Structure formats: C-alpha cells, structure tokens
From TrEMBL:
EC number: 2.7.2.1
Sequence similarity: Belongs to the acetokinase family.
The encoding gene: ackA_2
Pathway: Metabolic intermediate biosynthesis; acetyl-CoA biosynthesis; acetyl-CoA from acetate: step 1/2
GO terms classed as biological process: acetate metabolic process; acetyl-CoA biosynthetic process
Protein name: Acetate kinase
Matching NCBIfam families: ackA (TIGR00016)
Record's function text: Catalyzes the formation of acetyl phosphate from acetate and ATP. Can also catalyze the reverse reaction.
Length: 395
C-alpha cells in the first residue's frame, strides 16, 4: 500500500511517498524558500540522484503542484498513475482540540478552514493540498494529522491564559502549541538512543526552522510548549515576532491606524528575523550577512539565540532537571552555529556540547561533550513518517 504525505510548512512543502509494507520511502522531496528569491525544489526518488530545480516558487499552491508533478515525472517519477496511491496524509498545524487524526470529509475541512485565522501561514496552504489531492485522486481517502494533538496533554496551568476565565471558555482561548508531531517523533527517537522509555526521561525538544518552538516533555507527555493560542507565540521566527509585550499590539494599532487584520499580517509576515534584519527570513541568509558584518542580521540572530536559551532555562526549571536536549528542523539540524550559540554558557544546567561532534548537518548524532550531565542530540525530524503511520492506522 502506497501512502503519500504532504507537509505544508510556513516556508516549505515537504512530501514523502511511502510503501507501507516495509515503511520504505519511494520518493521524498522538498520545496523550500517559498516566496523568496532562490526558492528550490529537490526531488529524491529512492536510490537515485536528486533532481534540483531552482526557480521562483511564489506560493504554496504552485509548490504543491510541483511536488505532485514530480511523483509522476517521466524521467524522475516513481509512479505511473496517481491511482497507485491508496491514501494521503496531511499535516495540519492548527487542529484546535482535535485529540487525534481524522479522515477528511466536509466537516473536517470546515473545521480546518475555521481555524485558518489561528494559523494564517499554515491551515490555508494545507487546505490547498487537500483540494489538490481531491482533484487528482478523487475518492482516495485523505487523513489529517494535527500538530496540536500531542500538546493536548498539557496540564491546565500550562495551557490556561490569565485572562477573564469566561472569555477564554467562550472563545476556546488557550495554549494549543504546534509542531507536536515533530516534538513527539524526536523525543521518542532520543529515548531509543538513550536506551530508556520516554516516560522515564526529562526532555526538551527544540524544533528550530522557519517556525520554531521548544517543548518540555515529562512522563512521555508534552508538559509545556512555547507556541500558544497560535503559532505566533514563543521564539523569534523567520517572519513571526514570537513573544512580545501584548500592550504593543494595541499601541501600534492606534499609532499606525492598523486594522486587526493588518496588525496580524505585521506580526506574522513582517516581523521576526525578517523584520529585525530587514534582509531575509531565511537563517542561511542571516548567517551569511553576519559574516559580512551586517549589524542588523547580528541583532536578529542574537535575539533568536537569547529567546531559545530562555525557554531551555525555563523548561529545565519546570521539569526540575533535564536528561536530554534535542535539536531538530531546518536550522536545528543544519546549523552548528545555532546549536553552539544556544548551548554556550549553559554548563550550570549540565548542558555542554562537543565542538567537533557539533559539526553535523542533517544527520542523527549525539553531540554531548565528555562529562556533561545532559545528553544533547541532533535528530532529523520525520513528521511525514509519523503522519503516514497515523494515516494507515485510520484506514
Ligand atoms: N544549512 C543550513 N544552515 C542554516 N540554516 C538552514 C540550513 N538549512 C535550512 N536552514 C534554515 O531552516 C529554515 C527552514 O526550516 P524548515 O524546518 O525546513 O522550515 P518550515 O518551518 O517551513 O517547515 C530556514 O530558515 C533555513 O534557513
Ligand atoms: C507551526 C509552524 O510554524 O510550522 P512550520 O515551522 O513548519 O512553518
Ligand atoms: Mg516545518
């Protein structure tokens, strides 16, 4: 049975086609830097050379079409007909209080659309993915797997905001978190590498990409996470502001005469590393600009590193200690510099990484320095595999 998984990130679309008999990857691929110069599509049929197309990819709709076309490409494709695909699994960032994956039907689509306001960079693109698959694979079952589901285990004091209680109940305002599938996957993998059950470990997982979040995991469950009601909260991100004083919102709206929609756009698409640097949302561009002495790129980077450090410190306190620290996602997997900067001067918490081992990109490796109390790992995430398994389980 072949299962296709589509993962619409804020700056990327990732896909994997699995043969579920042995969980083999038939092809995988990635469109990255969507909407910025030098966007690219990488398609990797299993066991073959990769095909790279560098082209302007303006939005997720075009990106999704390119991904689907790559699968049946006459030279590089791995299937002749889309009918060979038995089911499609989709990553949905905001699933509200959905506790687990569900089959796509009209009411699921309506729920995802209603949550679009809470994940403006994600739920819309994911819906475009569902629609594209409905068009080319009519009648094929589709499943949605929610980023928010893993975080449904948080204790009430971690997910409740100190606003008027009745208003929070009325509008379902609470911390939902995101990247849950990824945090869960890398935490399980870290436990395997350590050789202990996850529920016996205190773990902090750092998913650092265009969207970034950090999660504290205790007793095998999400205990707290940096994203909130929406994926705008927490760390400084590619284009998102992360945590700011909430008073700035009304202040700026008043001063600049902004509507709620315009303010939302400012915080989601024009802030973060892009907003501070004035240069790019992509950390590769930021690292290159810093090397050339660009002061605002340096500032954006330092803010990012500083907020990541604060969450690791706070979550170590919440967990009453730390056994395992994990780095994953675009930046977390590929940037030795980011990991080095975040872990620097954290030895009082037991975190110390080895400079030579840390020179790793996109591969699983323990990077703990000799004698450090906390074991630190780089673990490439695999949201697609988790989604494929959940899709199969629902069929
Ligand atoms: N080799 C690299 N060095 C530094 N940063 C990288 C590297 N590869 C990817 N990144 C960064 O990772 C981010 C994209 O992360 P990713 O998790 O793929 O994105 P998304 O949030 O869209 O899912 C970009 O900011 C990119 O600059
Ligand atoms: C929730 C989120 O920000 O996802 P991504 O990092 O894939 O954009
Ligand atoms: Mg992502």
């Amino acid at each position: 049975m072949k299962i296709l998984v589509l993962n619409c990130g804020s700056s990327s679309v990732k896909y994997q086609l699995f043969d579920m008999q042995r969980e083999e990857v038939m092809a995988r691929g990635l469109v990255e830097r969507i909407g910025i110069t030098g966007s690219m599509l990488t398609h990797r049929p299993a066991g073959r050379e990769k095909l790279v197309r560098e082209t302007e990819i303006p939005d997720h709709k075009v990106a999704i079409r390119l991904c689907l076309e790559a699968l049946t490409d006459s030279q590089w494709g791995v299937i002749k007909d889309y009918k060979e695909i038995s089911a499609v699994g989709h990553r949905i960032v905001h699933g509200g209080t959905f506790p687990s994956a569900v089959l796509v039907n009209d009411s699921t689509k309506k729920a995802i659309a209603e949550l679009e306001a809470l994940a403006p960079l994600h739920n819309g693109p994911a819906l475009r993915g569902i629609e594209a698959c409905e068009a080319i694979l009519p009648g094929t079952p589709q499943v949605t797997v929610f980023d928010t589901a893993f975080h449904q285990s948080m204790p009430d004091y971690a997910y409740t905001y100190s606003l008027p209680y009745e208003l929070c109940k009325k509008y379902l305002i609470r911390r939902y978190g995101a990247h849950g599938t990824s945090h869960h996957y890398v935490a399980l993998r870290a436990a395997e590498l350590v050789g202990k059950p996850l529920n016996e470990l205190k773990v902090i997982t750092c998913h650092l990409g265009n969207g970034s979040s950090i999660t504290a995991i205790k007793n095998g469950k999400s205990w707290d996470t940096s994203m909130g009601f929406t994926p705008l909260a927490g760390l400084t991100m590619g284009t998102r502001c992360g945590d700011i004083d909430p008073a700035i919102v009304t202040f700026l709206m008043e001063k600049e005469g902004l509507t709620p929609g315009e303010m939302d756009e400012l915080m989601n698409r024009r802030s973060g590393v892009l907003g501070v640097s004035g240069l790019s949302s992509d950390f590769r561009d930021i690292e290159a600009a810093m090397d050339e002495g660009n002061e605002r790129a340096r500032l954006a980077w330092d803010i990012f590193v500083h907020t990541a450090k604060k969450y690791i410190g706070a979550y170590t306190a919440v967990l009453n200690g730390l056994d395992v620290l994990v780095f994953t996602a675009g930046l977390g997997e590929n940037s030795p510099r980011a990991r080095e900067a975040i872990c620097r001067d954290m030895d009082y918490l037991g975190i110390k990484i080895d400079a030579a081992k840390n020179q790793v990109r996109g591969q699983e490796r323990e990077i703990t320095a000799p004698g450090a109390r906390v074991r630190t790992f780089v673990i490439p995430t695999n949201e697609e595999l988790m989604i494929a398994r959940e899709t199969l389980a629902l069929l």
